Amino acid sequence: MTERERVLSVFRKEKPDITPWFGDLSWWYNSRKEKGILPPDWEGETGYLNFYREAGCGIYLYPPSLYRQEFDPTIKIEVEQRGVFTITCIRTPEGCLRSVQKKLVASNTSAYVEYFIKKVEDLKVMRYFFSHRKFTPDYEQFEKIDSLWNGWGIPCALAPCCTSALQTLLTRWAGISTTIDLLSEAPGELEQTIEEVQSSDDSIFDILQSSPALLFCLPENLSGQVTGRFLMQRYEIPYWEKRISQLHQAGKYVLLHNDGSLQASLPLLMKTGLDGIEAVTPEPAGDLKLEEIRDMVNGKKVIWGCLPGVFFSPEYEEEFFLSYITQVLKIFPVGTPFVLGVADQVPPDAEFSRIKLVRKVVEE
Fold first, then answer.
1. Does 63 have pLDDT greater than 90?
2. Residue 87 CA to chain centroid, in angstroms?
3. Angle at the Cα of 314 from the Cα atoms of 312 and 319, rounded to 5 degrees
């Protein structure tokens, strides 16, 4: 079977010949690309596929967007680079918003040190920004990548990031503290913003429904310790269900990205129409044991993940790494709705030889 046939067999409730192994290696890859140390045959679109082939890993998270986004002429976006800081200003007739992200050079990551939303008045600007966008379908590049990967992978298309407006506020636009303050001090204004932002994505999902993509992920970066049961039940699950239903009507499979804690979120996700949960993170990186995840899911959803990215680091002995993979494959044997994946990404300090070991264990 090809890698694509293996992963699709899981969603079709069929038994693949071996456990599908599809990991997100982009952090590891991009760190080397930025340092200028990628081998020449790993450069570009074909090179990225070569990299995954050499790693022995199925590829799924590199597809281009399925749509083009344009803004109303009244919106101006200014981006300025000052050393390790990226300053973004959004100017609208309703006011201006500013964010600052800091590049963390050692880990090749970035973090918000200033969010767009700082006070209740900023929500009006956010609503204007989201409601004055226009989307048009653009499937050409996606189809090119899909053809290029052929049987080695399946492009997993992304819904808007994040799909839920509350999750967008928590992770990208306001941060946790400000979002919770707004929920307490101005719930009506916040709920209006959530409703309008989500409605503004209607045309995006029309495009996604009609697209050639088969597999979709709602890239929520969800963690039960942050969002919690109440917030999920009130503000997120009804909206996710709406979008899942839309995509299912078009014959698509839908995952949700839950790369944080699971105790609060997984029981609720089990009650949705999701086909699976992606980047599932067990102990010690997460808060549930492998056996607890298996028993909670009980074969009713596809579990994609269960291999903590931190285990790829040389901080962990190779013997432990190999024994852990073996344990995962015993708990989720071939024939169960399971895709072995990284939870959440392979870190830059991993040795390529360790990444290649996963395929060896899976095949054995």
1. no
2. 24
3. 75
Q: How far, in Å, CA of 257 to CA of 159, rounded?
A: 11
Query: In CATH, which of 3.40.190.10, 2.30.30.100, 3.20.20.210, 3.40.1010.10 is domain 3-71+133-163+201-363?
Result: 3.20.20.210
Helical packing angle, 352-363 and 44-55, nearest 10°: 60
Q: Which tokens go with 201? A: 């994505």
Of 277, 334, 272, whose CA–CA distance to 304 is shortest?
Answer: 277
Taking only the tens place, the pLDDT of each residue in 284-313 is 999 999 999 999 999 999 999 999 999 999
Residue written as tokens 């022995």?
A: 56
Residue 109 has pLDDT above 90, yes or no: yes
**Given pLDDT bands bounded at 50, 70 and 90, which one contains residue 106?**
confident
Give whole-number Cα distances, 207 to 63, 137, 273, in Å.
Answer: 15, 6, 20
> What is the token pair recorded at 228?
């919690």
Nearest CA-CA partner of 279 in 217, 234, 213? 217
Largest Cα span, the chain: 62
Tell me how far apart the alpha carbons of residues 181 and 236 are, in angstroms, rounded to a whole number. Answer: 18
Report the candidate in 280, 294, 134, 129 with the shortest Cα–Cα distance to residue 217: 280
Mean pLDDT of the chain: 97
Cα 187 → chain centroid: 28
Residue 242 carries which DSSP code?
A: H
Angle at 83 between CA 82 and CA 89, to 5 degrees: 30
Is 253 within 8 Å of 216 (Cβ atoms)? yes
Cβ–Cβ < 8 Å for 78, 91: yes
Residue 228 has a CB neighbour count (10 Å cut-off) of: 13
Question: Under a CB-based contact definition with an 8 Å cutoff, are residues 297 and 270 in contact?
Answer: yes
**For residue 144, what are the CA distances in angstroms to 216, 224, 237?**
17, 37, 34
User: Could you please report the per-residue DSSP string of 3-59?
Assistant: HHHHHHHHHTT---SS--BB---HHHHHHHHHHT---GGGSHHHHHHHHHHHHT-BB
Query: What digits encode the pLDDT tens for the residues 13-45?
Result: 999 999 999 999 999 999 999 999 999 999 999
